[in-house]
Design brief:
54% helix; mainly alpha; 67 residues
Length: 67
């Protein structure tokens, strides 16, 4: 579903955000260190959020391309 959403955005000439590598690396470290109960950085909002809220955000994002 995520790939389908990215393709849809590209066909609509809508760019996907690009984030700094150090922020992505920080989230990877947090995920490994604290697991599913830790907090991650919402890269768009630059605030700390739970993994659950990020997963829900992704599900909302791909909702229009899921059958």
């Amino acid at each position: 579903a995520l790939v389908a959403k990215l393709i849809k955005l590209r066909r609509s000439n809508i760019a996907w955000r690009q984030y700094r590598r150090n922020l992505i690396t920080e989230n990877k470290w947090r995920a490994v260190r604290h697991g599913k109960d830790g907090v991650l950085i919402d890269l768009g909002k630059r605030t700390e959020v739970t993994l659950e809220s990020l997963v829900l955000e992704i599900l909302e994002l791909v909702d229009d391309v899921v059958d």
